[in-house]
Design brief:
The structure holds 2 protein chains of 2 kinds. Chain A is built from 15 helices and 2 strands. By secondary structure, chain A is mainly alpha-helical. By secondary structure, chain B is an alpha/beta fold. Chain B folds into 3 domains: about 325 residues, ABC transporter involved in vitamin B12 uptake, BtuC (Orthogonal Bundle), CATH 1.10.3470; about 160 residues, P-loop containing nucleotide triphosphate hydrolases (Rossmann fold, 3-Layer(aba) Sandwich); about 80 residues, no CATH class. The chains are: A mainly alpha, B alpha/beta.
Chain lengths: ~350, ~600
């Protein structure tokens, strides 16, 4: 291996690592606020990538119908109680978000020539379809058992994951797809050759991190989430509804997931079930951070990306095995450091 | 409706049905039943792990794969010709490899919180699947063929109905072993993992060992299933061992009912049959090939966990009029060995200059106290005085920042609570910690955990009945001693709070201690219950027991104890005989407020 290859591999590793880092941050956040280990995070990645790809082939993404259906189920579950207690304002809000919005969006997608509207609008439409699914999923799958044990929540999380993979196959088919790059530019600095997509990923990574930082530090909702993460009961007593924290967290997780998918789709061919593996690499990173530390998780993600890139050079067949066995020494190290024993109930 | 059947009769009917099935069913259904049996063997391990032990694994399919590939390699490779390429050698080698993997995975994840094991098993499941697919020696993605059938006593099991009997014989043995195990000393420790780990450790249970035992048990059953599968199919490829099959096994256990062994059978039957049916139907419906049935399974799973957390079996069990047998106690069982109690007046527990700081907060400052054999010492003080913190130092749960606690002359700082329990200190909890669905007898028997020694294997094969009889007789004796004899066979959760507190004392006594630490034993008790408790404590004291109690109730304390230590703001403000302390000015101020 010469320096040029090493630079190339590092660049690959850091690009993928940035994506894993975003996913790892979302996983740590969801776990801190809701105690849910969010396995379906990866499905948002494949949904994001493939919804974008469907736009670019001139099709209306089938994911819009999932949004419509999820919305209808939410309305069916929640409207009755609101009608009985005559909470009209809340009822209108419920209908607006879960029924009117998906239908209007579906109408727009059928009317507008999204294929020719450029990357930015395609990205926005993709997010418009996928991000509201986050809170809906929380409402349907997790909210009724929000206080269950971590183990129960994990099993539900896995159930949601397999459902989304199955639906993904129906929506997108078994063929893998790749989207157009955000930019075809190449930049040469001596030995280093950087392509535009990499810069897009890195730039998006930093702007998203900054946006999240501002959200958590400067806004009342961000502070509410931090409070919930620190002390669930305390936050509830201070008037922060657990359902709101849950939905808000899932909104952010879906946003990060879908955006990661859109960013990675021009680099790698994405299949309906690729997201799971990508998401799991985010998990390996999140576990390096013990599912609690954001900086360690982000650092871990870059490490995962680099190890993956270099092992694909030396032992490409064993790439996945190497990345996933990385979790073993990490867990060993955590285990040796841990002395406490907790009751999980 | 009156209960008609004993659980033994249910098992008998089940065995007859299994034996008769091949005589009436077509080969198609026999094959289906073979798959159900193989899946149930895996799901059974998950019942123990998930429903009872509060752990889980998504990597069971990988253990099935280890069992299948081990035997495939051993029976077909020329490098194992020296073992005659025997399937039974393949079985043993599969079990050995599985044990090694499970022990390594367990060792690194089981000390951490419960969700690290499932995450670890996901990673391991995926890695192993890729390894099966890439390793040349294992045939890569095409797999391995030419696996011979199993030979049992000269009988070649190469027909579906022949291996059917072997599969279901293994399953039956697994069911009986699991039921035996749960109804034993180790089984009680395993059942305490869900919601009672701190209590169990204080009663002398090594909960890490119990967790490891059930993870190993589940892994070995999965490996056995893989061995049977390989010799039934006569070829193996990586597909059945991927992570999604691992998830499906968990669905079987949870949907069927993860709290009962029968749930594993119900769940694996339901999912296997549904899968068979949906795999024909759904691809036609969607016009393409794929595992669409998982969408429905996922949905059922979410609904089950939201609406009926214990799965389908409890709902079915209601329809079966099965009678639960009461445990029989043999009063003539040889009593367990007892420690010799220290002589009256001997120093049992000594706190020397104990200080505990939490950051800037000094919860205990320079506390000293001494408990003697045959004496009751009360530690009292207003709320927030630091009593509970001191209690934690004395019972070995927490370690002092400075100073030391000596129990029978030995320092206990930094020791595990089960080690301290083994030295002869036993305790109750301020917030009652018992296992509500277990009977009073079983709860109390947990206290005697360290007085028995037979392990998991003896329990599974009922080789420990003599010891079990002695343990239960001891538990019954302690229950009688505290006056709960009438309630011995009811569920502990149905007792009134006062009775639950007494139960905790019986459980503590069951460990044959020389020092009892009681954390607010009279809280929530009615007047007559308090009198009964006081009588009990007096009797124990007369028998030479040393007792330390933390209490709020002054009336209860004053008529009962020999010596009182009063705390406020983490410091000792008074000590002495009860009457003297009652007159002490500082104590009166602490309790009633000073005159400004």
């Amino acid at each position: 291996m010469d320096a040029q290859i090493a630079l190339l591999l590092s660049q690959d590793g850091i690009t993928n690592g940035a994506i894993y880092a975003l996913l790892a941050l979302a996983l740590v956040m969801v776990f801190a606020v809701t105690r849910i280990i969010f396995i379906p995070q990866g499905e948002f990645v494949s949904y994001g990538a493939l919804t974008m790809a469907m736009f670019q082939t001139g099709l209306v993404p089938s994911t819009i119908w999932l949004l419509v259906i999820l919305g209808i189920v939410v309305v069916l579950l929640d409207s009755l109680a609101l009608i009985k207690t005559k909470q009209n304002q809340k009822l209108f809000k419920l209908l607006g978000i879960n029924l009117a919005y998906p239908l209007v969006l579906a109408g727009l997608l059928y009317l507008l020539p999204v294929k020719d509207m450029g990357m930015l609008l395609q990205t926005l439409f993709t997010l418009a379809i996928l991000v509201p699914m986050g809170p809906m999923l929380y409402r349907l799958a997790f909210q009724p058992v929000a206080s269950a044990s971590v183990l129960t929540l994990l099993i539900i999380s896995v159930a949601v994951h397999v459902m989304m993979v199955g639906l993904g196959l129906i929506f997108f088919g078994a063929e893998g797809l790749r989207t157009e790059a955000f930019s075809d530019a190449r930049f040469e600095w001596g030995m280093l050759s950087v392509n535009g997509q990499t810069l897009w990923v890195i730039a998006s990574f930093f702007s998203l991190i900054t946006a999240l930082y501002l959200f958590f530090e400067r806004t009342i909702y961000g502070k509410a989430l931090r409070a919930t993460a620190l002390n669930r009961v305390g936050a509830r007593l201070m008037g922060i509804p657990p359902a709101l924290s849950g939905k808000l967290t899932f909104f952010l997780a879906a946003l990060i997931g879908a955006l990661s998918g859109i960013l990675i789709a021009p680099i790698t061919t994405i299949y309906y079930d690729t997201g799971f593996i990508i998401g799991l690499k985010g998990f390996v990173a999140a576990i390096i951070g013990g599912l609690v530390s954001y900086p360690l998780a982000a650092g871990g993600a870059i490490l995962v990306g680099l190890i993956e890139a270099f092992s694909s050079f030396w032992a490409s067949e064993y790439k996945e095995i190497i990345v996933f066995t990385l979790i073993i020494p990490v867990l060993l190290w955590r285990s040796l450091r841990s002395h406490s024993m907790e009751d999980e109930e | 409706m009156k209960p008609l059947l004993s659980s033994r009769m249910v098992l008998g009917v089940f065995i007859v049905l299994i034996a008769a099935t091949p005589l009436v069913m077509s080969p198609f259904y026999i094959t289906l039943l073979n798959y159900i049996g193989l899946a149930a063997l895996v799901a059974l391990g998950l019942v123990l792990l998930t429903g009872i032990g509060n752990l889980t694994s998504f990597g069971q399919a990988a253990f099935v794969g280890v069992g299948a590939y081990s035997t495939a390699f051993v029976t077909t490779s020329s490098s194992f010709a020296w073992l005659g390429n025997s399937p039974w050698a393949g079985f043993i080698i599969g079990l050995l490899i599985t044990s090694a993997v499970a022990l390594i995975l367990g060792a690194i994840t089981l000390k951490l919180s419960g969700h690290f094991l499932p995450l670890g098993t996901i990673a391991w499941g995926i890695s192993l699947y890729y390894l099966f697919g890439t390793a040349e020696a294992l045939g890569g993605h095409t797999g391995m063929t030419g696996i011979p059938p199993i030979l049992v006593l000269g009988w070649v099991l190469d027909q579906g109905y022949e291996i059917y009997y072997l599969i279901w014989a293994f399953l039956l043995a697994a069911i009986i072993n699991t039921k035996n195990l749960l109804d034993s000393r180790e089984g009680r420790a395993i059942r305490a993992l869900k919601g009672g780990r701190i209590m169990a450790e204080a009663m002398g249970v090594n909960t890490l060992y119990s967790r490891m035992a059930i993870f190993l048990f589940a892994a070995l059953h999965a490996s056995t299933s893989g061995w049977l599968y390989a010799h039934m199919q006569r070829f193996v490829n990586p597909t059945p061992f991927n992570i999604h099959n691992g998830i499906e096994y968990l669905f079987m256990a949870v949907i069927g009912g993860a709290s009962s062994v029968w749930g594993a059978i119900v769940g694996s039957s339901l999912i296997t049959i549904l899968k068979q049916w949906l795999q024909d139907l759904l691809p036609k419906l969607f016009g393409q090939n794929g595992n669409f049935e998982v969408i429905l399974f996922g949905l059922i799973m979410i609904i089950v966990l939201q609406r009926a957390q214990n799965g389908l079996w409890p709902l079915l069990a209601k329809l079966l009029p099965v009678q639960h047998e009461l445990k029989t106690i043999n009063p003539h069982a040889e009593p367990l060995a007892q420690r010799t109690l220290p002589t009256h007046g001997e120093v049992i527990l000594e706190a020397k200059n104990v200080t505990r700081k939490f950051g800037g907060l000094i919860a205990n400052n320079n506390m000293n106290l001494t408990v003697h054999a045959g004496e009751i010492l009360a530690l009292i003080g207003p709320n927030g005085a630091g009593k509970s913190t001191l209690f934690n130092q004395l019972s070995g749960v927490d370690t002092p920042s400075s100073g030391e606690v000596l129990f029978l002359g030995k320092p206990i700082g930094g020791l595990q609570s089960r080690t301290v329990a083994a030295m002869g200190m036993s305790r109750t909890f301020q917030h009652v910690k018992l296992l509500p669905t277990m009977t009073v007898l079983e709860n109390v028997a947990i206290g005697a955990h360290q007085r028995g020694h037979k392990g998991v294997f003896s329990a599974a094969w009922r080789l420990e009945r003599a010891e079990e009889e002695r343990l239960l007789a001891e538990a019954a004796r302690q229950i009688e001693r505290v006056g709960l004899k009438e309630l011995m066979h009811v569920e502990a959760g149905s007792l009134a709070l006062g009775q639950q507190r007494i139960l905790e004392i019986a459980r503590a006594l069951c460990s044959d201690p020389c020092l009892l630490l009681l954390d607010e034993p009279a809280a929530g008790l009615r007047h007559l219950e308090k009198q009964a408790l006081a009588d009990l404590l007096r009797r124990l004291k007369a028998q030479g027991m040393a007792i330390l109690l933390v209490e709020h109730d002054m009336d209860f304390v004053m008529g009962l104890v020999d010596y009182v230590v009063v705390m406020e703001f983490g410091q000792k403000i008074a000590e002495g005989l009860p009457e003297a302390v009652q007159q002490n000015q500082a104590v009166l101020e602490a309790y009633l407020g000073g005159v400004e």
